[in-house]
Design a protein that fits this description.
The complex is a heterodimer of chains A (about 120) and B (about 110). By secondary structure, chain A is an all-beta fold. Chain A has strands spanning about 5, 10-15, 20-25, 30-40, 40-50, 55, 65-70, 75-80, 90-95, 105, 110-115. In chain A, strands 2, 4, 5, 6, 9, 10 and 11 form a 7-stranded mixed sheet that branches. A 4-stranded antiparallel sheet of chain A has the order 1-3-8-7, with no helix packed on it. In chain A, strand 7 and strand 8 (about 75-80) form a beta hairpin. The termini of chain A are far apart. Chain B has strands at about 5, 10-15, 20-25, 30-40, 45-50, 55-60, 60-65, 70-75, 85-95, 100-105, 105-110. Classes of the chains: A mainly beta (about 120), B mainly beta (about 110).
């Protein structure tokens, strides 16, 4: 298995533009998580899905952020409009069951820079 | 509100010696604790976990100890190797949190050859 695949690896965009981050989880994993890493807040959970259904989006910072999982092999995180404070590394992770015992498998992340 | 705290931003250890990384938590409802390792430009990698019904779990050179009364856990790496140099994240999860995993801020470990 190629692991969790995220694209793009790097994204530089201007303030006000729409940004879409993509994730392909590991086949057979029924949980998918979106995390954001910043110097100030560390790794924070944005949203997670179970069997393609959003379970908890309480970590999504504001309405500018939205996430979808149209099928078991694909998820997107969209920011519209983007702002400089959204600059961070965004990680997608997946797991079988809830991953609390055997952990999550993380992708390599998307480094987003909003100028 | 930091529910999982790693108070040491960095730690430097000589190759072959023991590395001890510490973590404190505040939520007594956490029932699983995990450690992840992260290299630059990569995502975190799961290392080892422990259930709250245990006080020790071992996997090769890595051992995690849990002290529930003190709400404290530690990761021991013996012997430390230069390839262990990375950022280590402590994480915790509990049923009442909807199985969300909360991460600490991380500790950067330097293993000197």
């Amino acid at each position: 298995d190629a692991g969790v695949i995220q694209s793009p690896r790097h994204e530089v965009t201007e303030m006000g533009q729409e940004v879409t981050l993509r994730c392909k989880p590991i086949s057979g994993h029924d949980y998918l998580f979106w995390y954001r890493q910043t110097m100030m807040r560390g790794l924070e959970l944005l949203i997670y899905f179970n069997n393609n259904v959003p379970i908890d989006d309480s970590g999504m910072p504001e309405d500018r952020f939205s996430a979808k999982m149209p099928n078991a092999s694909f998820s997107t995180l969209k920011i519209q409009p983007s702002e400089p404070r959204d600059s961070a590394v965004y990680f997608c992770a997946s797991s079988q069951r809830d991953g609390r015992n055997y952990g999550y498998t993380f992708g390599s992340g998307t480094r987003l820079t909003v100028v | 509100d930091q529910q999982v705290k790693q108070n040491s931003p960095s730690l430097s250890v000589q190759e072959g010696r023991i590395s001890i990384l510490n973590c404190d938590y505040t939520n007594s409802m956490f029932d699983y604790f995990l450690w992840y390792k992260k290299y630059p430009a990569e995502g975190p990698t799961f290392l080892i976990s422990i259930s709250s019904i245990k006080d020790k779990n071992e996997d090769g050179r890595f051992t995690v100890f849990l002290n529930k009364s003190a709400k404290h856990l530690s990761l021991h790496i013996v012997p430390s190797q230069p390839g262990d140099s990375a950022v280590y994240f402590c994480a915790a999860s509990g049923r009442t949190g909807g199985f969300k995993t909360i991460f600490g801020a991380g500790t950067r470990l330097f293993v000197k050859a």
